[in-house]
Amino acid sequence: MKYHPDRTIGLNAEMQKAASNRFCKIREVYERVLGDAG
């Protein structure tokens, strides 16, 4: 199976977007927990 550069780049962008979204959610929850604790 050959890699198609454009498809690989698109997949990479999707993964980065998903990772940043997940990070934002985690950070949001983390800050809420810290806010409740502090």
From TrEMBL:
InterPro entries found in the cross-reference section: J_dom_sf
Protein name stated in the entry: J domain-containing protein
Native organism: SAR324 cluster bacterium
